[in-house]
Amino acid sequence: MKRGTFVLASALLLTALGCGGNGLTAIHGTVTLDGQPLQRGRIELEPSGRPGPIAAAEIVDGKYEVRVMRGTKTVRISGGKVIGQHHFAANPANPMVEDISSLVPTCYNTETTLTCEVARGQTTYDFHLKSSTP
Among 37, 38, 70, 122, which one is most buried in terms of CB atoms within 10 A? Predict the structure, then answer.
């Protein structure tokens, strides 16, 4: 009985200390393009230089929120502005989806140069993009 009590107490202590947690940090921020909020888009944060889970979130009116592991991240941002709507899969019975005109240059997504360091105690990460790159 004493051994069972010790195991239970140890498990509770480890959980209380956070060893049983998932290690995710909630972060948020704004994404602007040429000083204006990015109307619609997607942000992805993946571990730099090593395999690991990719955290992703939708960007709406320049704002995003996502839960991500701490560490150095490669950041990919895509998106633009809403230019219309259409029925999903061209079927009138399906819901409407937005047509988005891509405005974000490839140096921020497929050929990204963006990185950030997700650190303990920091929760805001803003990205200020430019449509014309040098």
Answer: 38
